[in-house]
Structure formats: structure tokens, C-alpha cells
Amino acid sequence: MAISNIRYGEGVTKEIGMDLQNLGARRVCVMTDKNLSKLPPVNAVLNSLAKYGINFQIYDNVRVEPTDQSFLDAIRFAKKGEFDAYVAVGGGSVIDTCKAANLYAASPTSEFLDYVNAPIGKGKPVTVPLKPLIAVPTTSGTGSETTGVAIFDFKELKVKTGIASRAIKPTLGIIDPLHTLSMPERIVANSGFDVLCHALESYTALPYNMRSPCPSNPINRPAYQGSNPVSDVWALHALRIVAKYLKRAIRNPEDREARANMHLASAFAGIGFGNAGVHLCHGMSYPISGLVKTYKPKDYNVDHSLVPHGLSVVLTSPAVFAFTAQIHPERHLEAAEILGADIRTARIKDAGFILADTLRKFLFDLNVDDGLAAIGYSKADIPALVKGTLPQERVTKLSPRPQTEEDLSALFEASMKLY
Amino acid sequence: MAISNIRYGEGVTKEIGMDLQNLGARRVCVMTDKNLSKLPPVNAVLNSLAKYGINFQIYDNVRVEPTDQSFLDAIRFAKKGEFDAYVAVGGGSVIDTCKAANLYAASPTSEFLDYVNAPIGKGKPVTVPLKPLIAVPTTSGTGSETTGVAIFDFKELKVKTGIASRAIKPTLGIIDPLHTLSMPERIVANSGFDVLCHALESYTALPYNMRSPCPSNPINRPAYQGSNPVSDVWALHALRIVAKYLKRAIRNPEDREARANMHLASAFAGIGFGNAGVHLCHGMSYPISGLVKTYKPKDYNVDHSLVPHGLSVVLTSPAVFAFTAQIHPERHLEAAEILGADIRTARIKDAGFILADTLRKFLFDLNVDDGLAAIGYSKADIPALVKGTLPQERVTKLSPRPQTEEDLSALFEASMKLY
Ligand SMILES: NC(=O)c1ccc[n+]([C@@H]2O[C@H](COP(=O)([O-])OP(=O)(O)OC[C@H]3O[C@@H](n4cnc5c(N)ncnc54)[C@H](O)[C@@H]3O)[C@@H](O)[C@H]2O)c1
Ligand SMILES: NC(=O)c1ccc[n+]([C@@H]2O[C@H](COP(=O)([O-])OP(=O)(O)OC[C@H]3O[C@@H](n4cnc5c(N)ncnc54)[C@H](O)[C@@H]3O)[C@@H](O)[C@H]2O)c1
Ligand SMILES: [Fe+2]
Ligand SMILES: [Fe+2]
């Protein structure tokens, strides 16, 4: 399991100009999105760059829920700018876009598909050296500041996929809880659900010693290695924080303790799933996002329809964990208990139902849309949703329980309505 | 904070030849000690090197509890060998010696004192590139496979000190629980006490946001940053494993589950204290080891007198935590509870006594020598012990409660007899 460098504390962003000086950076690319470019987190970064006399250009054209086209736009900007360092200030959309821009600018002769995950892309290993990238997360969700993953929506195929390589992991993540204070309610909620699913999926993922085939050379180990004693520590710890603080963070923007804890939990869960992997909620979420029709979520200041990533993963979670519990029922029951279920008289064979019920109650309390139907899907869409899940093998094969197409169909169907 | 690269699993050592191939290594230095050179862990490494045709030389002259002289001997070997990679197979003594050999071979014009911690040495930052070092721990104690620290006994001054730099952190730690099976009882016990103290000290260390002065540039942050939300996770997790498994691991060499868990706990506590730091038990242990008279511990197959590191830290632990509890009583009480104390009716102001009692009972149950008197010290030695602690500022200043020379005297005196 590998390395993440993080720095935590209220206000630590003000040191970023010094960090860039220490890196010897002379032409810095600051990436963000249009909404954030007017908000305090970007301000804090720019103030520090100004204070330390760092020369920079801003790219604020990141698309919320990026696509291949929006990645390519950022890549063009990066190639032209000949930057020697990158700063990404934003949620997963910004950090992921910046990772891709850094990668392709460093590898100018590569085709876009070269590094995209197989089977959609060629999944080539990255052998070129990248420039330093400092990630400053402003949501409490993806943990992208700690992972070697960049996700985008492949418009042509109407499916999300990504790039996964240790090489694109940020050099440093600056976890400054002050940046969470400007997040509106639904962004706290949806990005928090992402943390919840990262923790639950990595904790229940196929154990590292049960993956097969075992790669013959350690260099060929996938980034996602299955659940293991190290990722378990991160996953459980993040889950405990989610249980204690997510509702508070959503309901009260002034609750700094809750928001700060969720900001850390996002990084912790990122370190966990960045090593162990995620499975069905994430695998099934990619077509749920990719096939979006007209859904426009509250609090997202954007002009296109989208299903926020955290919402797209959490809506199937009750069905998914009811399905996977057959394999590690104790872990599912333990998760339910952490999330508040009373398991004193629970039977181990009911672990899946108990966790599913606990999740449903959790979502209901937080006014989450009532299932896939509420965000615009119907039974008729299930074949397309299943078809979009099949190429997500990289994650779905980490499900502790193998799935047929019929199983996937049934999981989507069971997720149409939750309450 | 940085998290280390580790690989965990029974038998994973057999891949080490491939790892070295992947690193392109053509001249490998294998370091170990005379006792281990005949035991299964070294065998497993050599078999893998042979299988993958790796060219290597063995240095088995590592001193258990290394000194400046023994470091210098290993450094001479490394300089002569012009190696392009290192493998350390052993306990902290071997891994630390190998770190020093790698460092000084990469920096041939440096004086030995250049990199030694101030005020004893010059504490210069390391700017030369080192060769890859793979650490294969065979004790469950130091966590040296995850830290940037190398400790030795400075004979002239009769005091232990060390080298601390992220640059000497191993490239990879191979945590293979099979290597723990050959450890005799007292080595399991003493190295386990080291894990216990790493966890307790890093959990109770001065919080990261209370250190002063705050370095003006992040590049000047010390390796030991004080307790923080990330190191807390590792410290508590390691402490829980120690509570559950240390006694079992000591008493029953066949208890693979217990020994495997302690092997992981050692790395976990290493990640924790490697970022947060340790404080008084460690600061006071350096003169306890350095001033050793004639004590020869059971199970240590060596011909010089020595106080094993884990024993030297744990003997003062009851006195130390009774002293520090004034500052974070809740954390001390929480630690006592994890170690088995019933705290339902405990008063917070008794936290220190409760933790001290719990530790005394723990040590008594494990037949640990009855205090500093039992290993050859008397009241007359206290001034020398205090004098040897004063230069250990790098760690003692991380104590949550500041100490005068009188305080240190009283702590040594209280540690003369435990039961
Ligand atoms: N790389 C990974 O490891 C990883 C993991 C999970 C998800 N993802 C990807 O990350 C993306 C989702 O990222 P996200 O959930 O962080 O949200 P996001 O980056 O898509 O941002 C969502 C919205 O929140 C706004 N926003 C962000 N921070 C704000 C703040 N502090 N104050 C006010 N508004 C703020 C943004 O402007 C945007 O409108 C998806 O594309 C998803 O697939 C990546
Ligand atoms: N670098 C760090 O972060 C760090 C932290 C704490 C302590 N230390 C240092 O590490 C040293 C102590 O290391 P240690 O406690 O690991 O012990 P050690 O390396 O001194 O070994 C102790 C004895 O155990 C034997 N041994 C080791 N593994 C064995 C096995 N599997 N089977 C049989 N015998 C085995 C050795 O041959 C030796 O005789 C001290 O010098 C201490 O100061 C370093
Ligand atoms: Fe996610
Ligand atoms: Fe130690």
C-alpha cells in the first residue's frame, strides 16, 4: 500500500505559496471551476501565491462531473502553458481534471485513450515523470487528494470511466477545513455519501488474499488490491466519523467540528479505498451518472443536467449491501452497528437486511431522493444501466460476491424506490 | 504526513528477488546480524535472491543495539561495495544500521556527525539521493521499516542518539509474519513493549497545533510533529492490537494469529510515532541503554551486556504516564481502558494512576524485571541518567508536560522498583 502526503489544519492553505517556492515552481497552473473561482477557497490560494510572488495562470473551465471533452480542454490549456507545477482547488471534478491535465501535458505524444482504463481505453502504465500537483479539496467527498484516480464521463459511450495510476496521485493534499464552510447543504450531503460508500465498499471488498489470478510479479499488482488490514483501519475510522458527523455537517453549516471531521474522513476513506478499491455501488454508479436525462440537483450551480457522484453511488447502496452480505456478514453487521443499528439481538444471516435498512433510514432522514425513479429512471432503462456496468470490471470484480447480468438487473430494480 | 509503503502477508518475502529486479538492482547489499544469519528469515530472502539471479553480498556484522563504531563498520562495507540497493533483514538494529550505511555511502564526503541529531551532531538535512532500501523486519517492535530514524549508542558520551530524516525511510517494508515464528519469548516481549510505548507516547504527545515555535516554512517542520488526527488513528489501532495479542504472542510461539497481528501493529505504531513522535519513555530510555553495566537479558544471543530497547522504554512507563496524565487525562484513561482497566467509576483526575497501575499489572503478568534496580541501577546513578536525558530534547520536548531536571530525577527514582 502506498503513500499519500497530507497536511491538515484550519488555515494551512496560506502556506501554499511557500510550498511552491520550495518546489522551485516558476509557472504554476491553478485549476478550479467557475463557481468556486468566486469563493473563499480559491481566494485563499491566490492570496498566498501573490504573497510569495508565484507566477501563475488560472484555468477555471473545469466541468462539474467532467467529460472526455472537458478533460481535453484542460489538457490543451496545460500543454500550452508549459507549467512546472499544478494546484487544483475544488472538489473531485477539479482535482481529477488537473491530474489528467498534468499527465497528458507530460506525455504529449500519447493518445487520450492510451491511459484510460481498459477495456474502454488501453490502460497503459505511466512511465513519464509528472510535475508536482498540490490538491486543495473543497468538498468532503472524493478523497481525490489521496488517490491515483481521475474519473470522467465518456460521452460517446454514455458511461463514466477513468485513469488509474499511482503516477497521478497528488504530491500533497492540503486538508483545510475552512474550505468546507462555503459548501451548500446538498453538496455536503452528496459528497458525504461518497465518503460513506468509499468506506463501506472498501471494508467489504474482496479480501486482498482472495483475488485471483495473483499477479506473477508485484509490479503488476493493480492499484485496487482488495480489502486488507491497512485499508480496514482507514475504512472503519472514516465510517465512524461519518456516523458521528455527517448529519450534523449537512444540517448546520456553522458546525465547524462536524465539517472539519468530515473533511478529514474524506481523505481517510480515500487512503482506504485508494488501496483496497470500491465495488458495486461505484461500478453501478457510472452508468447512473453517464445516462442522466434531465435531473438537475438542488444547490449545484451548473447549467447542465447531472447526477452528483455521491448521489449516484448511495442510491444503490441498500440493494448492494443486502446482496453482498452473504459473503462477509460480520463486516456488514459491524458497519450497521457503527451507523447506529441496534444489533444486540440480530441474527448474522440478517446482516444484509439490517445494513440495508439502516442505510435507508439514514438517507430518509436526510431527504435523499427516493431511489433511481426519483432522478428520472424507469424499468425500461435497466438494460442500458446493466450494459453500462459491465465494462466497470476493474471495480465490480472487487465485489465479494460475483454477479451475473441478472443480478445487476435485480440490483437496479431494487434501487428504483427506497422508502 | 507521509505514509509508508508496506507489503503484508505470509510468505511475501519470496517476491523480494523480483522487487530487486524491478528496481534494476545489480549489486545488492544484504544486511543482518550473526544470530539471524542462520535463521529462516535470512534464508527466505537469500532463496528469493538466488531464484531471481540477484547478485549480492552479505554483511552480517550488525551489532545488536548498534553503536557509532558498529555503524561505521557497516558504512565502510557499504562504501566499498558500491551497491545499488540494500536489503535489511532483522530487527531495528539491522534496519537502522542499513539506513545509516545507505546514507553515508551516498554521501561519501560527509563526516559522521553531519547527519546525527543536534545538539550531539550537526543535524544537517539530507540532500543527496539514496539507493533503494527494502526492510524485512523480523521482530515486532521498532517499526523501523516505516520510519526515517536510525538509532545508535554513542559510546564516548554513553548515550543513545540517532539520525532522523525522511530520506532514510525504507523504500518498501515487507511485513511477513512467518519471520516472527523464530523469535524467542523475551524478544517478542521486549520488542512488543516498544510497540506499546510507541503507541502510548505518540497518542499522548504534545498536539501538533501546540508545538512552538511554529516553523516559518513548512519545509522546516520536524519529522516528529506532535500528536495529530492521523497519527492518533494508528496509535489507537496499534494499542488495541497490543492489548489483544501481545500476551498471547509472548506466551505461545505457535499462536500465529497473535504473532501476525503484533507484526502488523509494529508497523502501524511506527507510522503513528514516525509522524507524531515519542516523548519521555524514549527520551529517558537512551541513557538507560547507554549506561548499561553488566545486565545480560535472557534470550539475546549476544556476547555484550545490553538493555534491550523495548525494556529500556517500558520500565519508566508507569512513572511517565502518571506524570503526563495531568495534561490529557482523557487520553490516558482511554489508553488504560484499552489495556483492560475497568474505568466505569474512575475519576478523570486519577487517570495517570490508573494507567500506571494498568501498566504495572501488565508487566508483572509478563515477568518483566522489577524496575531499573533489577537491571543494575541504583539511586547513585540518577544524576548520570538525568544528564543523559537532557540532550534528548528532540523527543522530550514532545512530552505534553514540560519537565525540569528534578522532574526527571523523580521519574527515574519512581522507576527503580515497579511492583
Ligand atoms: N479521483 C477519485 O478518487 C474520485 C473518487 C470519487 C469520485 N470522483 C469524481 O469526483 C467528481 C465529484 O466530485 P465532488 O463530489 O467533490 O464534487 P464536484 O467537484 O463535482 O463539485 C460539485 C459542486 O460543488 C461546488 N463546490 C465544491 N466545493 C465547494 C465549496 N467549498 N463551496 C461551495 N461550492 C463548492 C462545485 O463548484 C460544484 O458545483 C465526480 O466526477 C466523481 O466521479 C473521483
Ligand atoms: N528506527 C526506529 O524507528 C527505531 C524505533 C525504536 C527502536 N529502534 C532501535 O532498534 C533497536 C532494537 O531493535 P529490535 O527491538 O527490533 O531488536 P534487535 O534488532 O536489537 O534484535 C534483538 C535480538 O533479536 C534477535 N532476533 C531478531 N529477530 C529474530 C527472529 N525472527 N528470530 C530470532 N531471533 C531474532 C536478533 O538477532 C537480536 O539478537 C534499538 O537499537 C533501538 O534503539 C529504532
Ligand atoms: Fe466515489
Ligand atoms: Fe522505540
Automatic annotation (TrEMBL), chains A, B:
<keyword id="KW-0560">Oxidoreductase</keyword>
<keyword id="KW-0496">Mitochondrion</keyword>
<feature type="domain" description="Alcohol dehydrogenase iron-type/glycerol dehydrogenase GldA">
    <location>
        <begin position="5"/>
        <end position="177"/>
    </location>
</feature>
<dbReference type="Pfam" id="PF25137">
    <property type="entry name" value="ADH_Fe_C"/>
</dbReference>
<dbReference type="InterPro" id="IPR001670">
    <property type="entry name" value="ADH_Fe/GldA"/>
</dbReference>
<protein>
    <recommendedName>
        <fullName>Hydroxyacid-oxoacid transhydrogenase, mitochondrial</fullName>
        <ecNumber>1.1.99.24</ecNumber>
    </recommendedName>
</protein>
<dbReference type="GO" id="GO:0005739">
    <property type="term" value="C:mitochondrion"/>
</dbReference>
<comment type="similarity">
    <text>Belongs to the iron-containing alcohol dehydrogenase family. Hydroxyacid-oxoacid transhydrogenase subfamily.</text>
</comment>
<dbReference type="InterPro" id="IPR039697">
    <property type="entry name" value="Alcohol_dehydrogenase_Fe"/>
</dbReference>
<dbReference type="Pfam" id="PF00465">
    <property type="entry name" value="Fe-ADH"/>
</dbReference>
<dbReference type="InterPro" id="IPR042157">
    <property type="entry name" value="HOT"/>
</dbReference>
<dbReference type="InterPro" id="IPR056798">
    <property type="entry name" value="ADH_Fe_C"/>
</dbReference>
<feature type="domain" description="Fe-containing alcohol dehydrogenase-like C-terminal">
    <location>
        <begin position="226"/>
        <end position="416"/>
    </location>
</feature>
<dbReference type="GO" id="GO:0047988">
    <property type="term" value="F:hydroxyacid-oxoacid transhydrogenase activity"/>
</dbReference>
<dbReference type="GO" id="GO:0046872">
    <property type="term" value="F:metal ion binding"/>
</dbReference>
<keyword id="KW-0809">Transit peptide</keyword>
<dbReference type="GO" id="GO:0004022">
    <property type="term" value="F:alcohol dehydrogenase (NAD+) activity"/>
</dbReference>
